[in-house]
């Protein structure tokens, strides 16, 4: 009897121990869960996008006006790039003079240059229609990556798919959602303002599987390096992401996340100016977060700014003006081709935790190649027309190569010209001058309405 009682007591103690242990585990897990939720909430609160207050002293949007004689002369110089470099058979222009490759970004630049040249009276309607028609035939007939979407790069003569070095890539190297988003700007402008070409634009777009470009509100590109499997990746950082999203919204794609300025916004101090930057860490997410003039300026020139785009654009511009005030160095930075290796750099206001970083596409330092960007100078002047932008454009206007177009910029180190002659530089100059004359490119004009 006593032996059974001892055994029973032992069993009861064992059961109670188990219950206590489970209770302890349950209590710890409950408290840990609360703590984890609290930590997550705290992290979310800490990582919440900052408010974007209105800046004081922001320059008013200038009204359209006729170009003066000097500006007309600048437009003619910029247009020379396309007169000299457009392929007569395919109707496309290369990214860089003497180079036979082009991207969809630079093809968009070419089409926007043609639209601007038409609006400025540099080409007559017959010449305009011929250029647009040829370019649209090229877009309609060129092979697509995987039969889905335009490849990242093509040869302007053969229309074969290539890599960025214009080496043959029969299977293609993927697509860029940001580049395709830019291409949709001139295509929409053509449809709305030059409806005779609408059927051709429809044929171009009918070939594209645009659903591949957006998932869950995000933009997606395709990467296909030699010897590797194709890989879809989220594409775009603050500025570029919202710029491309503007035209994807017109296509009916879900780009809600990409269009949101506040979702990944952080404000960084650059010379006393709180500049809009992307909060995502390049080391974690694998994409650089360059803050450059280009996407902000293009948003204004092509669409007209939303409130958030205008606010961020002003801050990016003001940081550059403030650097000049502090150092005496004329500053207008953007992405640009350069006339020496690595041949393309990002001159940034902010990148990867550093102000005024000049880096290549891998984020590696290229500080000796920091330049005053010709296109950025013209764009900021068109959009704000301040005393400082007048100084920028006066300096940039000296960077001409007679009969060939405008050079890409002026190196800060040594003060020598960056002699790269590019489609994008000369297209943005034409866009900027056309903006002065008639406002944003992507406008709906009533039939018979006279543009300013």
Keyphrases for this structure?
about 450 residues; alpha+beta; Glycosyltransferase; 4-stranded antiparallel sheet; 14 helices; disordered C terminus
Please sum up the structure shown.
With 452 residues, the chain is an alpha+beta fold. It has helices at 2-47, 69-85, 104-119, 125-141, 177-193, 198-206, 240-250, 256-259, 282-285, 294-302, 307-327, 374-384, 387-396, 423-438, and strands at 101-103, 144-145, 149-150, 153-155, 174-175, 214-215, 218-223, 231-234, 265-270, 273-278, 335-337, 344-347, 350-351, 354-355, 358-359, 371-373, 400-401, 405-411, 417-421.
Q: What CATH architecture label applies?
A: Alpha/alpha barrel
**Averaging pLDDT over every residue, what do you get?**
89
How would you name the oligomeric state of the polypeptide chains in this document? single chain
Per DSSP, the total helix count is 14
CATH topology: Glycosyltransferase
Percent of sequence in beta strands = 5-15%
Structural class by helix and strand composition: alpha+beta
Number of strands: 19
Helix content: 40-55%
Fourth CATH level, the homologous superfamily = Glycoside hydrolase 144 (GH144)
**Rough outline:** globular
CATH class: Mainly Alpha
Q: Strand count, sense and closure of the main sheet?
A: 4 strands, antiparallel
Number of domains: 1
């Amino acid at each position: 009897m006593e032996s059974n009682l001892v055994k029973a007591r032992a069993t009861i103690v064992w059961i109670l121990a188990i219950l206590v242990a489970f209770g302890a585990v349950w209590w710890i897990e409950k408290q840990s869960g609360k703590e984890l939720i609290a930590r997550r909430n705290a992290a979310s609160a800490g990582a919440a996008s900052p408010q974007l207050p209105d800046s004081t002293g922001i320059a008013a949007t200038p009204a359209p006006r006729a170009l003066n004689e000097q500006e007309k002369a600048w437009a003619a110089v910029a247009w020379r790039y396309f007169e000299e470099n457009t392929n007569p058979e395919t109707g496309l222009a290369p990214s860089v003079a003497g180079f036979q490759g082009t991207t969809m970004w630079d093809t968009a630049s070419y089409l926007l240059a043609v639209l601007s040249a038409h609006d400025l009276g540099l080409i007559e309607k017959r010449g305009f229609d011929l250029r647009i028609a040829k370019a649209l035939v090229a877009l309609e007939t060129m092979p697509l990556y995987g039969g889905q979407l335009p490849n990242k790069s093509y040869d302007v003569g053969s229309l074969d798919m290539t890599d960025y070095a214009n080496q043959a890539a029969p299977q293609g190297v993927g697509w860029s959602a940001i580049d395709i988003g830019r291409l949709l700007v001139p295509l929409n402008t053509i449809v709305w303002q030059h409806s005779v070409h609408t059927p051709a634009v429809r044929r171009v777009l009918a070939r594209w599987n645009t659903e591949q470009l957006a998932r869950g509100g995000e933009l997606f590109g395709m990467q296909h390096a030699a010897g590797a499997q194709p890989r879809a990746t989220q594409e775009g950082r603050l500025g570029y992401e919202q710029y491309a999203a503007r035209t994807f919204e017109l296509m009916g794609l879900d780009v809600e996340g990409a269009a949101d300025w506040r979702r990944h916004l952080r404000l960084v101090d650059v010379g006393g100016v709180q500049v809009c930057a992307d909060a995502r860490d390049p080391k974690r997410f694998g994409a650089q977060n360059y803050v450059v003039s280009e996407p902000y300026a293009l948003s204004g020139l092509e669409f007209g700014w939303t409130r958030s785009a205008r606010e961020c654009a002003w801050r990016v511009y003001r940081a550059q003006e403030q650097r000049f005030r502090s150092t005496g160095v004329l500053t207008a930075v953007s992405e640009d081709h350069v006339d020496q290796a690595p041949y393309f750099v990002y001159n940034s206001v902010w990148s990867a935790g550093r102000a005024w970083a000049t880096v290549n596409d891998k984020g590696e330092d290229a500080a000796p190649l920091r330049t005053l960007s010709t296109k950025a100078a013209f764009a900021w002047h068109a959009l704000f027309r301040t005393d400082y932008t007048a100084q920028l454009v006066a300096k940039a206007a000296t960077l001409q190569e007679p009969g060939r177009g405008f050079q890409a910029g002026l190196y800060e180190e040594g003060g020598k010209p960056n002699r790269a002659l590019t489609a994008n530089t000369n297209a943005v100059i034409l866009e900027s001058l056309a903006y002065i004359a008639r406002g944003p490119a992507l406008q709906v004009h009533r039939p018979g309405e006279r543009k300013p």
